[in-house]
Specification:
The chain is mostly beta strands. The protein folds into two domains: 165 residues, no CATH class; 155 residues, Lipocalin (Beta Barrel). Helices cover 3% and strands 53% of the residues. It is built from two helices and 28 strands. The strands form seven sheets. Strands 13, 14, 16, 19, 20, 21, 22, 23, 26 and 28 form a ten-stranded mixed sheet that branches.
């Protein structure tokens, strides 16, 4: 596979539809996300519609398949099928388009019943659609919103499409920097003496928007929460600014000790090719002198610690019979695993069968330039 491009969009949902916008744009539109780019593989439904239409719809058949393992933990697995006439799933390519049925599985937490992964497989391809395979996998986790509210939101997704010609397209999607929007309405009928007058209406917008930090700042964050393999994805984490963040002229923009907040975004345990964890720490806001700012930054570095690596390399060897030399030979294979980079998220490997991150673990970031 050859990387083609990287697309950054904002997505807004009210539970029944998905709207999209370019980063920083104040107007969301119902246009499909593919309209923002010239080519590639993009579609809607991943942020929330698939989960709603499959798990809660009446025209979907479900079958319990027992327990299975996902990311080193055990979950309840269910298989499902959505007939083509009810799926509403349309695939469009340059060569043709068509409606398909959907089938696949979803995995739910054994205690909370939250869906942690949803897999969709397209089926029943019509003759007008030159596609041989299309699969979508979406991972979910609890996300804390304003006033302690908790919502089940997607964390990442992968889409793979194989055309009848053999061409393969692959799309990796990550969701970060979640915010909540709403509105509050009040009606004032006035005092009893003026009850005959028309009521007065007022609407207050509830937008959990935080201020933006200047771009180009180097910020060192020291973790205060202790991360262990006993924690659940979505758990809140705290940190502090390790050293003063200054402007070019020396003025302190963010004092050391300013609180940084976020959540545990990813925690997976694997045994192959060697025992290791994948850990993701997402920082979403920093409080500067009582004012909250969005932590929109790219990871620059991770503190050196035993077992922590940005990439995971492994090698294996196998014997084979060399016909040219008339004897046995040894073939060595090397494999390197890497993790995608997302704004405000530090994702890394930790080798070993036990996870214990110290409370003063440090990461270094560079803030992004705010959208105009």
């Amino acid at each position: 596979m050859r990387p083609l491009d990287t697309v950054c969009l904002e997505v807004l949902t009210d539970g029944s539809k998905e709207l999209f916008a370019s980063p920083g744009d104040r107007k969301f539109r119902e246009q499909p996300p593919i309209s923002y780019v010239g080519s590639g593989l993009l579609g809607n439904g991943i942020f929330g519609l698939y989960l709603h239409d499959i798990v809660l719809a009446d025209n979907v058949t479900h079958e319990y398949k027992g327990e299975s393992e996902v990311g080193g933990r055990r979950f309840a697995r269910f298989d499902y099928r959505v007939p083509r006439m009810w799926s509403g799933q349309t695939i469009r390519t340059e060569e043709g388009s068509g409606v398909v049925s959907l089938e696949g599985s979803y995995w739910a937490d054994l205690e909370t019943y939250d869906v942690v992964r949803l897999q969709l497989n397209a089926a029943d391809f019509p003759p007008t659609l030159p596609v041989a395979e299309m699969t979508t996998s979406i991972d979910y986790a609890q996300t804390r919103l304003r006033h302690g509210l908790v919502a089940l939101l997607p964390q990442s997704a992968e889409v793979r499409l194989v055309k009848s010609s053999g061409e393969v397209r692959h799309n990796r999607i990550g969701f970060t920097q979640c915010r909540e929007f709403g509105a509050e309405s009040t009606i004032d009928f006035g005092s009893s003496e003026s009850a005959e007058r028309s009521p007065r209406f007022s609407v207050a917008s509830v937008d959990d928007v935080m201020r933006s930090l200047p771009g180009g700042l180097h910020i060192a964050v020291k973790l205060r929460s202790q991360i262990s393999d006993r924690m659940a994805v979505g758990a809140l984490i705290d940190g502090v600014i390790a050293t003063n963040v200054t402007a070019r002229k020396g003025a302190v923009l963010i004092p050391a000790g300013s609180p940084v907040r976020g959540r545990l975004r990813r925690l997976e345990r694997y045994t192959e090719p060697a025992p290791h964890f994948i850990v993701g720490l997402e920082f979403t806001e920093v409080e500067v002198r009582g004012i909250r700012h969005r932590f929109d930054a790219d990871l620059l570095g991770i503190e050196s610690a035993p077992g922590i690596e940005r990439t995971l390399s492994s090698s294996s060897s196998a014997e084979f019979w060399d016909l040219d030399r008339g004897g046995q030979g040894v073939k060595e294979t090397k494999e390197t695993l890497w993790l995608p980079s997302l704004p405000g998220v530090a994702t890394f490997f930790l080798r070993g069968s036990k996870l214990e991150l110290p409370g003063d673990f440090r990461t270094v970031w560079k803030t992004r330039k705010p959208p105009q």
